Amino acid sequence: MNISRIDLNLLVYLDVLLRERNVTKAASHLGISQPAMSNGLKRLRELFNDPLLVRTSEGMTPTERATELEPQVRAVLADIEKAVQPREDFDAKGSERVFRIMASDYAESTLFPKLLKRLRNDAPGVTLDIMTPSDVSFLDVEQGKVDMVINRFDSMPQSFHQLTVWRDSFSCLMSKKNPARHDFDLEKYLQSKHVWVSKTGMGVGVGVNPSDVQRLGWVDEALAKAGHKREITVFTRHYQAAMLLAEQKDLVVTIPTRAAQLQSKNSRVVIKEPPFEIPPLELKMAWSPLLQNNPAHQWLRRLIAEVAKTID
After folding, report:
1. Which helix (H) or strand (E) holds 142?
2. Rounded to an integer, what distance in angstroms lies between the CA atom of residue 199 and that of residue 212?
């Protein structure tokens, strides 16, 4: 096939059609009329000698051939975007760009205060739209609708670029009135009631099964390996809520050390080392390959890495 005879715009049409799976929505996304998009789909079917999208009871469904083409087309378009991306440096001082970042409240509490301080100085016109893990899907990130995600991840699409922001240990937070704080050891830890807090990855969360240790995370897996299990009375996805609950005299909260240190000046609580070994966690930032070579995005990634190094 002579590639000079192919309208490469059809690849853009195909990429959007496979994402939206709806001719009207795809046309709206590209700013063209529905008849023009329908004609584009007709030409695509002729080009690949395949219907590509078939109407079913669940809407427009991709054929096997379309499913094979989807990652290939996306990779081609990403390479084209890289080739035509302007190489000018990002003007941070004069920019009014909005960066959309999904972040856990652990990252938001520990990293973002200093990041915002730097932004006010280095890029006063830049705005951050901070989203929660429940607001965002991996598809949103892949398509570049979200600039970056910052969280702990059990798994991630291989196509994503990622960087470790930092590694963090764990600490125990409890009330100064909690009798367990004196000579705090494993026995007292196990005798206490606990607050579980975590929100790993992205997407809408589901209820926790207290007996499913494998899904409870680092702390409970570490205990299970030593043959122990703690009594969890509260499950939350919010570190700020967990830190407030630590003020109750019968609760122990085991959280990342950088989060616990936010309470170092709170006279109502104390911070203790866990009486058993917990593997450190990794806070990562990840982004779409579509944004890898974007100058503004590169600037933001460098800034976040610089700020992270200043937070002990």
Report:
1. helix 138-142
2. 16
Q: 0.85 cut: is pTM over it?
A: no
Q: Is 62 exposed, middle or buried (0-12, 13-18, 19+ CB in 10 A)?
A: middle
At 225-242, the pLDDT tens digits run 989 999 999 999 889 899
Percent share of the chain, pLDDT over 70: 92
SS3 128: strand
- Beta-bridged to residue 264, according to DSSP, are none
The string over 87-110, giving b where at least 16 C-beta atoms fall within 10 Å of a residue's C-beta and e elsewhere, is: eeebebeebebebbbbbbbbbbbb
What is the rounded distance in angstroms from the CA atom of residue 175 to the CA atom of residue 162? 37
- Which tens digits make up the pLDDT trace of 277-310? 999 999 999 999 989 988 999 999 999 999 999 9
The three-state secondary structure class of 152 is coil
Residue type, 192: S
Handedness of CA 288, 19, 14, 50 (dihedral sign): positive
Whole-angstrom CA distances from 143 to 137, 198, 262 are 10, 27, 35
Contact 287, 160 (CB under 8 A): yes
Token pair for residue 144?
């570049």
Main-chain phi, psi angles of 235, to 5 degrees: -115, 125
The answer, yes or no, to whether residue 199 has pLDDT greater than 60, is: yes
Distance of CA 65 to the CA centre of its chain: 31
